[in-house]
Amino acid sequence: MDNNTAKFEQWCIVELFGHQRIAGKCTEQNIAGTNMLRVDVPETKNQPAFTKYYGSAAIYAINPVDEATARIAADSIQAAPVTIWQAEAFAEKLREKMTGLPAANRSDEIDDIDMEDGPFS
Question: Is the pLDDT of residue 114 over 70?
Fold first, then answer.
């Protein structure tokens, strides 16, 4: 099999535009008719494993490394999955709706709102 048809599956440190980096097991995956770089970031001491996808325009460089190096890099980089940001933003909007106050105008005690009687219980 030549290099043009070989399946790409490699541990890498990926450099992204915007001076960002991510490390993990990289593969190519077709999504909605376009090939994307799939990065499976391994579990670190501070977060569970997660997956992110990148289009080629977001990638500055792909640096193949061995698994141990990628795992050390993932732990050092501490990239976060998007869902964490979405959850925090959702919680903040819900707090603002329930109190009528933006975060800057209320005490931290609002963060302890009991969600059991909320709209999603």
Answer: no
Architecture of domain 9-79: Roll (2.30)
CA 25 to CA 10: how far, in whole Å? 6
CA distance 3 to 90: 45
- Could you tell me if 24 and 11 are in contact, meaning their C-beta atoms sit under 8 angstroms apart? yes
Q: List the domain boundaries for the chain.
A: 9-79
Cα dihedral across residues 56, 60, 62, 67: positive or negative? negative
pLDDT digits 0-9 by tens, 30-85: 999 999 999 999 999 988 999 999 999 999 999 999 999 999 999 999 888 866 56
Sign of CA dihedral 60, 62, 68, 71: positive
9-16 β-sheet, strand order: 50-54, 34-41, 20-31, 9-16, 59-64
DSSP 74-91: HHHH----HHHHHHHHHH
Contacts of 76 (CB under 8 A, 6+ apart): none
What's the rounded Cα separation, in Å, for the pair 63 and 61?
Answer: 6
